[in-house]
Amino acid sequence: MTDHRAIAQWIAGYRRAWETNAPADIVALFTEDAEYRTEPYVEPWTGHAEILTEWISAGDEPGETSFEWTTLVTDDQIAVVEATTVYRLGPRYRNLWVLRLEPDGRASAFTEWWMEEPAEP
Description:
Blueprint: H1 4-20, H2 23-27, E1 30-37, E2 45-46, H3 47-58, E3 65-74, E4 78-87, E5 92-101, E6 107-116
Parallel strand pairs: 1-6
Antiparallel strand pairs: 1-2, 3-4, 4-5, 5-6
């Protein structure tokens, strides 16, 4: 069941992987055949090897961001999460994540909907 505890554990793992870019932390998040979409209508990164390669090529440096989130909607497998990502020396993003968690807590599908907040006048 996709409850708040399962979502919080997955997001804690995601943040750990975001900060470390460690292959073991990254692949631990996803099923072997998972699909990761960085935007809703792009071709997904599919499977551990592709997710790992693409993640590391786009990785941020440790401590570069702060992150806050809340769950908007859940059912047995799907969670919709709203989040804010703030780069220490850069932009601020609003995110919607659609996350399909399997019973073992790993994601079989993950889609990011992100938008940069306008700069303050």
